[in-house]
Structure formats: C-alpha cells, structure tokens
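Example A, followed by Example B.
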Amino acid sequence: MFQTNRLIIRPTNETDATFLVDLMNSPGWLEFIGDRQVYTESDAISYIKARITPQFDRLGYGNYTIIKKADSVKIGSCGLYDREGLAGIDIGYALLPDFQGKGYAFEAVNELKNIAFNQFNLPEIKAITNKENLPSQQLLKKIGLTFKSYIILPHEAEEILLFSSVYQNSSHST
C-alpha cells in the first residue's frame, strides 16, 4: 500500500469487485481501454483471480485501487502491467468520471512511477495510449514520459502511442 497527500493506493483485491464493474464499464474505460467483458460482480472476481492476482504473485506489483483518504471512496485504479506484446512494464490508470480533472490521476500515477523506479527497481517504464486520448498523453508527459513510437499490440488493429521513461538518479544516467 502507498499513500499520497490525498490518496491511498493499495493492491486491488476481491473486495473491489463491485467498484471494478463500475470503472470498467465507464465511458472513458470503454472508449480508451476497451470492453473487458466484466459486467457483474462475479465477472470482476473472475477477472481479479485470472488477471490481477497472478501478476502480483509473479512480480510483486500490478493493479492498485485508488481511494480518497478524506472519505474512503474508491475513485479509480492505476498499475504496473506486464502486458502482452510490450517489452517492459506499462504504467496505466483509469478514474471514474466524477473524479477526473481534479489532479487525482497525476497524484497517483506520479507516485506509482516513483515507486516503480525506487522500490521495485524497474530500469524503465512504458505507457500506451490512444491517439485520441489527449488528456492521457498530457499526463504521461507531465510525469516525465516521452513519446517513442507508434505500435500495434497483439490481437489489436488500432495503432497506439508508446511512451517511455528510463530511471535516472545522480549516480546513474542514460
């Protein structure tokens, strides 16, 4: 579990199933991430068991639920993903519509980027986004990622943007 000034960021688990149904069927998720066919609490529990828990067990990191400290409301998710067709680890995020545009995504994703480099010792993180998702592109640049190329992931037809950031500190530069 990690914390920022306003947020708790903790590993997603089965208690998040109902929340995940809402998030994964929100307009932004469906438009920019895609339909993961998670329509019921049972679907969400199956998704967590099949997709989220195994990566945590294998790598020690994965998908996190973002919770507001002030009222314990679940507002989104962010994570570090070992994604098929992408060499390296992908940082991603999604928020429920009511919580977009309030700085929560930046706060959570910037913290997760720092944890990726400083706690999980990842040498590089990548991010992917749709060409049309300008807010996501802006956020990725704001946390220090730069555009690298256009790619097409396996089983997909649409070309997307690939961003990347390499870990740098005073004793290590690239």
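Example B, a separate protein, is given below in the same form.
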Amino acid sequence: MTRKEKALEAFASGLNCAQSVLLAFADEPGLDPEKGLKMASSFGGGMGAMGLTCGAVTGAFMVIGLDSGYASSVDRPAKETMYGAVQGFAREFTEAHGSIACRELLGCDISTLAGYHEAIEKDLFHTVCPKYVETAVVILERTLGR
C-alpha cells in the first residue's frame, strides 16, 4: 500500500486530516504511531476545528519536523533546514490549492456553528478534504525525497 493510499484509507476510517497524513509516515524512525495519532488529533479541522491551517498541512509539518527538526537550541543549521522544508511545502500546497487555511480551502468557516453545518450539508469533509490529504502526502514524499 502506498503512503497516499494509507493516508486516504485512514481519513476514510474517521481519523482527521492531520492524523491521516502523519500515519502515512508512521514507519519513520522515532515515531510511535499511537503517540503520533494522539499528538495530531488536536490539529484536525484547521487546528482544533478553528478553520486555521489545514490539518493535512500541519500533519505534514509534524513529519518534516521528525525528519529534519532540531532538538537543541544551538542547532541553527537543522532549524534553518527544517524551516526551509516547511516553507517549501507550504508554497507547493498553496500553488496547488490556493491556500493552506482550512476555512479558505473549504469555502466556509467551520469554527462557527453555521459554517460547520454548511460543511456537513455540502459533505465537504468527504468530498473536498481527501484531495488535501492526498496532495499533502504527495508533496511530503517529494520534500523528504521518499
């Protein structure tokens, strides 16, 4: 199963977009899948259903951090490399979809009750969000050289 297929299957099973992207890379060294899923759970719906940065994007950012992040305040080269990868990812995702903001991608603000109901009525979480999960995985594979 490809990473893209794994992410889409996870999303279809009910995991959020951030969890689905992160899970697709659960075989990466240093990632405990259960802890990763718990960590990513708060990023769905544009960071806690606030409609901010798309969960597929934040899930990808977490994977980039695992791959090239830093754990020391003096590791400036790792910090610069990781920030460059995050910014490059965000540029590519924005080129593909026009934004990295959940509310802009969905066309409604799910942080409001009216916006959330609109997303449900239009079935956006099942018809629109999977393409963002897919794009995130494809760009992430390219970014990480996988």
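On Example B: DSSP finds ten helices and no strands in the chain.
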